[in-house]
Amino acid sequence: MLPVITAITNSAISLFAGFVVFAVLGYMATSTGVNVEDVVDSGPGLAFVVFPKALSLMPWAPFFSAVFFLTLLMLGIDSAFSLVEAVNTVIVDRNSNISVRKVAFYVCGLAFLMGSIFATRAGLYFLDIVDHFITNFGLILVGIFECIAVGWLYKAARLREYINSVSWRNTGRWWNVAIKFIIPLILTLLVIIQFFKEIKTNYEGYPDWAIAIGWSVVVVPLLIAVMLAIISKNEEKSG
Asked: What 3-state DSSP class applies to 190?
């Protein structure tokens, strides 16, 4: 029952946050006399431009501003846990003799150095570019590869049997079809549409070198993943 409560609570908070965001955008649009879409462009400007302006107009503005940015910081740290742990798990699984603490130290250190560019005066622009390409390509491609790995390599029916064995409610055969065909096809269509949109015009009018940075954060991890998969496959054959 606890997973159900967790899922419902998470979805409810996300839904409530949507009302808060559009309420703030509507208020700012009304107070400045512009359309909602003209208040802020998509991206980090919502959190770092619009919300600070809205908070400055509230009673006890310093208090609510501190609460807002503290919450934002906690959300960032919470998300970082899952990202770092995923990398740590892969490295430790392949090299069981390496200390988890040592791996976490080097991974976090490398992430800190790579992320320091976002703390510069141009950091907001770099963050906007990287966030755009990861959201529109990186995450969707990961979803496609996960569907392939689960549906075709591991076998969807096999995973569904395990899910049903540990769940209080069984999942039907429709789940197999969704994982193997429907979801990857929809995600692939989204990637193709977004790709043609990107090559038609640069995102937000950024120069080509900045767009190249955005593509690199998508392509480089994919190349590394393919390389590691090939190495792992060769090790299995030689072993």
From this structure: helix
